[in-house]
Structures are given as structure tokens and as C-alpha cells.
Amino acid sequence: MPIPLHKITDRWKFHPLAIVSPTDFTLGESQPIEISDIASDSRFSLYCLDFEEEQACWVRTPENIDITKGSFIYTTQFELAQEMAISSFDELADIVSGIDLKESNITIIHSVGRCGSTLINRVFASQPQIFSLSEPDTITQICEALGAERISTATAARLLPLVSKAVIRPVPGSTRRENVAIKLRSQCISIAEQLCEALPQAHNIYLKRSPENWLRSAYRAFVPPDKVDDREFKQMCEDIFAAFIPIVRAERIENEPMSLAKVWILNWIHNTLCYREASERGLSFLTLDYSEIQSNPRAAIGSIFAHAKVDNIDWDAVDATLVLDSQADSPVARASVKDNAITDHHFKEAMEVLAGYLPDE
After folding, report:
1. What does the pLDDT average to over 121-128?
2. Assessment of whether the complete model's pTM goes beyond 0.85
3. Which of 134, 219, 274, 289 is the most exposed, fewest CB within 10 Å of its CB?
4. CA distance 174 to 66
């Protein structure tokens, strides 16, 4: 069955780390391609979903590029995509029908963000027996669409196994799937239980960080000093988080965007509440604090590999990875964020918000 394959004539995102969207690319002329060709060609990878049109967008990247090697897979896809094929959700099921999730030993890395999760992904990727990838954004899309009530739980349950199969498809330079590690964006902790229904054999890891240190790190990474009091920037951030975080929606005041300190700490609170709720309902995690990774990385990583049921570890490769900036090729590289700092006033405000929701913290 043929589907359209379009040339990509232009590309644009308002920020390199923005969640993927069908509008990221301008599409040119098309020609038909068989879905069997998508299924068999490892240069194709699933880029994004279009929930309104019930379509899946596949990008074709150059043959000699392993798109999993960057900090975030979606940025490599965006930068290097040459063509886009568009399939229906039913055709998505046909394309991935040959992938058996039960054949893979899968580890899912959840986190609160800014806590070493990208580093752990790099550590997994340093091992030749592991296929590891960072932030396949179709899972993020499902998370946010579900949180914003743009899709039903039934639709999420239908799509998550299909997307998971697409995620672990072979890519150029990497065909082994015995051990798979998938590091997700922080917000995906809110669908941890749905993911476990799609991947019941998965080993779950949750990486956390103290709210004080986390907030300072998030500010350095995502809040430019000249934007702290910028009304338009504050409104944009609030809108982004409110789309999928109920407590941000509950705290909104029309035409009065909340401070960046408040919206960011609400993000930490939401993530922590989702983790606690999933744990209370019986979902099992290996939970590590960022301080444990910093103070004794070998012990922390050893426990991660043991939980993931991966052995024959190349510790020289691990040690070589630990000294690198795991996000060096991204906008949140250490060199880019070191001068941004939260003010005492905004920090105090955030801690007061935290105490209102989680006084035990």
C-alpha cells in the first residue's frame, strides 16, 4: 500500500528543544512509497504524531548517520531529515508489525530532569550490547496530549505499543535489540503506568534531585537572565506547562502570568507527585538521587546495570563517558548555562510554593 513521501524543503522550530510537531517541516513535492519499504529501510524513523489527522510522520535521514548518538534523538532527526513519509495510525501498525517487543530486555529511564538522566543514557550507549536512545518525542507527544485531554486513554493505550515498536526499530549502525534503554523527557513520568501496560517487561528507573538544587539547575539551563521579568516569555512558559500539568492550570490567573520560579517549581512538584502516585499504585522503580551519581558514580551505575539485567560491563567505556559533558551538543551544554542564576527573591517564592504542596520536602 503506497503512502506519500515528501521532500523536505525547509524546517523551523521556535526552540531546538521544543516538542516535535508536524509543522516543524515545510514539505515539497511527493511521490508514492510502499509501507513495506518504510518497514524495511532503517533510514526511516518515526518523528512525530498528528493526533488531529490520526497520522504518523516518518523522516528519512542519511544512511551513514546513527541518529541515536546525539543528546536528544529528536534534534538529530530534525536537523538531518531529508524526506518525510506520512502514514495513518493503521498504517503505522502495519509498518511496525514485524517488531516483537517481548524479544527485548527494555529499561525505561524516568526522571525529574536536570539530574543526570542524559548522562545515564550516554553510559548505556557506551556499551556495545545495549541500544540506547534519548527522548523519542512521540512518547512525549502522547504524554502531553493525554494530559491536555486532546486524546483519550484508549487512544494512548493503542498508540504506546506501536510507538514503542517504532522506537526500537533498527537504525543505521545499530541493529542489536537484546538490551534496550529508553530515556524519556521528565514529563513522561505522568504516563509511567500506561507505558508499563505497553511494556510489561520493562525495568523502570527514576532519577530525582532535591528541589533546591534542581531549581537552580533548571534556571541556569532554561531561564535567560534577560527574560526573568519578560511578560511574554513568562506567559509562553506558563502556557506550555499548563497544557499538561493540572496544578499549573489551577494556579493560573488570567492576564497575570506567574513568575518563572513558580511555574518551574510547579513542574518539579507535578513530577514528584506523579512518581509517588505511580509507586503507591505498585509500579516498581529503582530510584536514585543525583547526589548518589555524583558522589559514587560506579556504585550508582552498577546498581542501574544490575536493575536493567545487563552484564559484561565495559567499565573503561563507562569511566570515559563520565568525564564528558553529556549534553555538549545541545543548547543546555555546561558552557552555555553556567552564568544564569535564580535571584534570592524568586528562590524564596518557589520554596514557599513547594511548602504549600509538599511540606515534607
Report:
1. 95
2. yes
3. 289
4. 7
